[in-house]
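Students often ask why we bother encoding 3D structure as a string. The short answer is that it lets us treat folding as translation between two languages. Here is a chain of 728 residues written in the first language.
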Amino acid sequence: MRIAISNFSLADSRYILILYRQSRLEKHGQGDRRMQLGDPITKISGIGEKTAALYHKLNIFTVHDLITHYPRDYEEWRDLVPIGELRANQIHAIRGMIIGAPQTLHIRKNMTITSVRVKDASGACDITYFNMPYMKNMLQTGKQCIFRGRAVLKNNRMVLEQPKIIGPQEFEKNLHRLAPIYPTTKGLSVAAVTKAVRTAVDALSFEEDYIPEFMRHKYGLCNLQSAMLGIHFPANKEELLSARKRLVFEEFLFFIVSVMVLKDMASREVNDCPMMRIDACRDFIEKLPYQLTNAQQRVWAQIEEDMCSAHLMNRLVQGDVGSGKTIVAILAMLMCVMNHAQAAFMAPTEVLAKQHFETISELAEKYNLPFKPVLLTGSLTAREKRRTKESIALGACNVIVGTQALLQDDVDFYNLRLVITDEQHRFGVKQRETLAQKGLQPHILVMSATPIPRTLAIILYGELDISVMDELPANRLPIKNCVVNTDYRKKAYQFIANEVAAGRQAYVICPMVEANEELMGDQPVLENVVDYADRLKKELPSSVRIDYLHGQMKAKAKNYIMEEFASHNIDVLVSTTVIEVGINVPNATVMLVENAERFGLAQLHQLRGRVGRGKEQSYCIFITATGQNDTMERLQVLNKSNDGFFISSEDMRLRGPGDLFGIRQSGQFQFTIGDIYQDAGILQEAQSCAQELYAAYLANGKMPVCEHEAFWAHYDEHVSSDVDFVNI
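And here it is in the second language, the structure alphabet:
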């Protein structure tokens, strides 16, 4: 069952959609079957089943998915450059005459290099092609050609690698235009994605704009058709900025409306069985070998008040890594258990679920807590799963730890009254429905290690009450940080080797999974996990055990690598930001982040939280491939402070709309195009618009007013099924 919005019934929403589809048929004629957003991508010319499988790896299944697969960057076609002025690691276009005959060398089996020399009045350079021997026939001596590709310096000679040969008319046509660069996967080129997007955008009708014209005018937004053309094929930066603002606004708008839906539902959730305050919680606090911080005491008082009130708790606890959120969660579970109910603790990965289970079990034994914990994960055998589920259903256990699999249909709880989860698994309509169908209405406690400025948090977490833990326990060693350029890399490797020799472990973070032949304009080369791991094996002593991890790996493989690292069977883990959550290794004392300029400050701080979890001094090294002053100023914030709330505020202050796609945050708010720091102003405008839309809906007896019907129809068809995407 899909819930579009509270009391906005399925029948109502379907009726509106039918009216719209009928009006489109009447407008375009019964026989004019335009391409639809919901069509599979195989509807697009040139995409068969084999190619579609590659798009599926990028989570692109429909035409809608494809046209919202926005470029990650843009490359501007610039004027021709004299060969004598070529700069290494930048993309240039040159016009030169081929001198001498092209040569093809067979380096080894299945590998060839075809090369030729090209000159103009200012100098000469080499042109090389790997595994493209047929290019020899196109490189005729004395021929004048325009070559466009990345320049590299090899043996003191400038080389253009894999350049495209471009005709004069094509070059003039594209000069100063912004060419889109899309996220791709192996076997799928940027050119192929560009062609498919162009086909889809040209075939679709964007005449019905789901943001009403008066609202577009009020907030300075272009129409949908201009936005789609401008984001994918902008003629200039102004057109790109206009398109991006519209699409960011739209994405935030649907998100905030969904938050309002959840808040509307949560406000009616009555706590039928308020809990009793329990002395055991105070006794547990007194037995701890340390005193709770003022922040911990304040947050626990808020949670205790919620659980004893007449309404169900729906609370977010924000706090840096190490601020003591786990103890607060343990107290909530203890109160629940002492009130003769069950508590569930959901983690984003199996590895972290096991670690939470071990922590809870150890505390239960050490402090004689009445916990009967069980662990439910996908790696259990069928027999173990059956026994565990029986234990949960019969009430033989009172603390259940696992992943989101705890919400599966065949998991029946005896008396579930509390669910503790993190920002990756925030509760939305689907999860609430699942529990409601089982007759359960538990308190919800969401734990977040991503500090967000309160002004933004109120918008983004609008359906939750917010508690902030802005204080770290005493006697914690702060992480030592440094921001350096690539010249420091050798020293960083030696430092990692020394830490490993001392029995400790390290992370290395890269922005890319694999090398991408479609490199970005004048941007520095981005390090990738696969090649970096191989390089590191040559740079570090052979005794150092190195492996890699990234999000495209299968879940079983990811769990295996994380478990191996947690068990200290891996010394250095090279990874993408997939390790941002889901792993806790106190023995890891070093983090090296490559291309640090490509990440937002808040995300870098979140990554840094993977170290500094043990008793040893920890270190974080941020390597940047650009020496630009604004980049260094931004990264120096991490040098100055380990306070996540300060860092996120600085991130918002130092960045603005002009950054376009230069920096992307991830974490719990992985919007497709918007960024909560860079686009904070648009986020606030979208909130005002959402409030206006929702107020009109409520005033009209919880039915869309006429001028908003297109908005609610689009919401129901493309958004409401993901209304729980507060975990975006």
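Translate back mentally: Residues 1-32, 517-521, 656-668, 723-728 have pLDDT under 50 and may be disordered. Keep this in mind for the problem set.
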